[in-house]
Amino acid sequence: MAQQKTILRALAGETLDTPPIWMMRQAGRYLPEYKATRAQAGDFLSLCYNPELAAEVTLQPIRRYGFDAAILFADILLLPQALGADLWFVTGEGPRLSTITSADELSKLKPTDAIHDTLSPVYETVKILSEELPKETTLIGFAGAPWTVATYMIAGQGTPDQGPAHALKAENRPVFEGIIDRITEGTIAYLSKQIEAGAECVKLFDSWAGSLQGDDFKDFSVKPMQQITAALKEKHPDIPVIAFPRGAGTKYTGMHAAIGADCVAIDDRVDAAWAAKHVQIDGCVQGNLKSSHMVTGGDALVSETRRICDALGKGPHIFNLGHGITPDADPANVQLMIDTVRGG
Predict the structure, then answer these.
(1) What is the 3-state secondary structure (H, E, C) of 55-99?
(2) Interatomic CA distance for residues 83 and 185, integer angstroms
(3) CA 311/CA 295 separation, integer angstroms
(4) How confident is the model over 283-307, as pLDDT tens digits?
(5) Rounded-to-integer distance, Cα 188 and Cα 205, Å
(6) C-alpha 132: how far from its chain's center?
(7) Is there a contact between 181 and 149 (Cβ–Cβ < 8 Å)?
(8) Mean pLDDT of the 108-118 span
(9) How far is CA 86 from the centre of its chain?
């Protein structure tokens, strides 16, 4: 059955008449059933660490829409928490962490083999999903890429320009590189456990890759993702990897080979026709409808969806958004998008 799953076929390089489809953040606040389950959990972290409820919210968009893949419901900041950072969420504002900005604070992080105690509920969620998902639905595991995770660990929260991480990189390179190395090691272990629990492919989200310039992009976005991919391929050679260096622009060219990824996800600032010519020639491309169309809908959603499908239809393609769906999205527009992709 695995060989018949459309996502896995596209990841293997097959061009399909109709691209498989899933959506970043497809389990989330735009769905009323998600809001109800989150209320039942009590708070966001409690939801992430409750295997039954985390599996439930992962399954909700599959039941509603029949996406070709389900992505594990979790958060990229669970790994820093497992490494020893304090993590909490402020309602209406997002995550907060204790910061890591010195050699002393770095030295106090837990060893990689100690992360699994904290993350064991996530692996249990994966096991539940591998049993409960429809047979035709691919299960995707994921983690944040080291640079993006590091920006949160250094600043203690999300920032508009990742300034604190850039400052530490300039002012104390050894500590900054030590943080990247620790996240890289932890991510390999974390994703390997997800695969052992039943994930059929994994995705690396480097949401803030675009703020890295020059050699820093290669050294701190591409290289860590390459190291993670190589280690996972050594342990799990049949498991595909999707890489998402968001904001890479023209640097998306050659990214399959640079990272070793089976698929490169592109953001909505990249033209699909350009991506077909410069990125898809090397393998599967995922993307890249603007999330705003899930809010506004209408003819613009339909025409843009068709344009992307036409542009990327001559090679392996997984249809997705160029970034995650937003809480103000209309669930009806998601259905319109899916109907457009599958119905022409």
Answers:
(1) HHHHHHHHHHHCCCEEECCCCCCHHHHHHCCCEEEECCCEEEECC
(2) 11
(3) 23
(4) 999 999 999 999 999 999 999 999 9
(5) 14
(6) 21
(7) no
(8) 97
(9) 22
